[in-house]
Amino acid sequence: MEETKDDSPFKCVAERLTLGITRILESMPGVADVRFVEREPAEKRCLLSWEQKNTCILPEDLRDFYLTTDGFTLTWSVKLDNECVPVGCMVINSVARLRPLLPPISLFSLPNAPTLADLDWERNSTESGSEVCPAVPHFDAQSRIFELDSCGGNGKVCLVYRNCSQGVVAQQSDIWFLDRSLYWHYLTPTFTSYYRLMITHLGLPEWQYAFTPYGPSPQAKQWGSLYQPLTFHCEPSSTDPVGEAPINTLDPTKAFKGRSKVATPKKKPPTPSSAGGSAAKGPGGGAKHATTRR
């Protein structure tokens, strides 16, 4: 693991922030180049300025997180053929990059140009919320959406304030995942719950898609089955999105050692009895010898 500081106080903070996941990653076969980026705590005035600018109150756990570190970045790779291939990535944007997903409408945009608000069609507006899965956010003034993680272009994890009113400070928020088709998927009610999910899934590629009806791509399933078989859900379902996946017991150090070619056993030569005809029993139970013609 690469760090910018080696003093023990910072190591304690890094260990607490990562929940000890760096040591677990370094002990896994093939994992290399585990990097945790150190960040200074955010200033309180920056948090207050963000709240005033966006007319939103940060959740208490997210505020405490930013007062500990202004963002989070942990990456790790896998060594394949003497080359490091990036695999895992855990990101929480800093306060400065916690920007609205919906930028203000530009004065220079075309009057009839489509916007994200046009995607709030009947499937979103008529969905009834529940305690398990609340009503989906909207791309209009009803919701205030801020990007926590861009997910490497595979979607966006967002801090969402729903049921907002113009000029009223929003206080209640939850965490949602916006996939590449711009469809919303509910993740967790609090930032702390999402943070634990991110750490538990080791930042594997497309792990957020395990909470969607269609799941991650086949390549992402392979990485998940190899490095996190217990929590990476290869077969998600709408009724049980957090069901257990089968345990992967493959040990690459033993399975791919190679093996010697097994020699084919030679055929035994036929016995004289089988070559000249086997002895047969006569009617009286005695042996009837086979006669040979000269």
Trace the largest sheet across and list its strands.
Answer: 4-5-6-7
Tell me the Rg in angstroms.
Answer: 31 Å
CATH superfamily assignment? SMI1/KNR4-like
Beta strand %: 15-25%
What separation lies between the terminal Cα atoms? 90 Å
Number of domains: 1
The first-level CATH class is given as Alpha Beta
Largest sheet: 4 strands, antiparallel
* Average pLDDT metric: 76
Describe this structure in words.
- This protein is α+β, with helices and mostly antiparallel strands.
- It is 24% helix and 17% strand.
- The chain has a four-stranded antiparallel sheet.
- It starts with 7 loop residues before the first helix and ends in a 6-residue tail after the last strand.
Summarize the structure.
The protein is an alpha+beta fold.
Ordered list of secondary-structure elements with their pairings:
Layout: H1 8-18, H2 21-26, E1 31-36, H3 44-54, H4 60-68, E2 72-80, E3 83-92, H5 122-125, E4 144-149, E5 156-161, E6 174-178, E7 184-188, H6 191-200, H7 218-227, H8 252-255, H9 272-276, E8 280-281, E9 287-288
Antiparallel strand pairs: 1-2, 2-3, 4-5, 5-6, 6-7, 8-9
Task: Pick out its properties.
alpha+beta; 294 residues; three-stranded antiparallel β-sheet; disordered N terminus; SMI1/KNR4-like; 17% strand; single chain; 9 helices; four-stranded antiparallel β-sheet
